[in-house]
Amino acid sequence: MxxxxxxxxxxxxxxxxxxAHEIAESIECQGGNALLRTFVAREPHDIVISKDxxxxxxxxxxxxxxxxxxxxxxxxxxxxxxxDLWLKGQLIDKPACVFSSSSSMHGGNEATLLNLSLxxxxxxxxxxxxxxxxxxxxxxxxxxxxxxxxxxxxxQNSARLSKDEIKICQSVGQRLxxxxxxxx
Length: 184
Fold this sequence. Notes:
Shape: globular
Number of domains: 1
CATH class: Alpha Beta
CATH architecture: 3-Layer(aba) Sandwich
Radius of gyration: 15 Å
Distance between the termini: 9 Å
Oligomer: single chain
Number of strands: 6
Order of helices and strands: EHEHEHHEHEHEH
């Protein structure tokens, strides 16, 4: 059974985009249809999210860099336009997960993941984290939390995703497809 998952992200220096692409690739490998969407077109291939994308999708992966423990303003501005979807209950019971990146190990990833979760919970979406059965969650020396996939980009925002971070992103995509199919 094919499912369509929107992978919605904002990326300033490329880390969150790299995570989004890992999640999307994992969704595709599971036979799902991943729709990569951004809040602002920064590259020619970027497709800006529409409310119809959210209404029509079966699930959502949502990520931004951390901004002092909060989501990027571009994402917040979009979610503030979705009251009409909330009033109609158009996102209720759709599975969702969150992902984030920060410059340092204690740069606010967990707080940001919780902050990213708030609009999803208000919309009645079913939030999924990363279960401890994912071995990389216990082994990682960089990003990865039970609240969602995360990445530590370094002070210059130049660190590539670690092997553990990639595996955690992939597990998020796999689980999102699995749970979405079960709910259908």
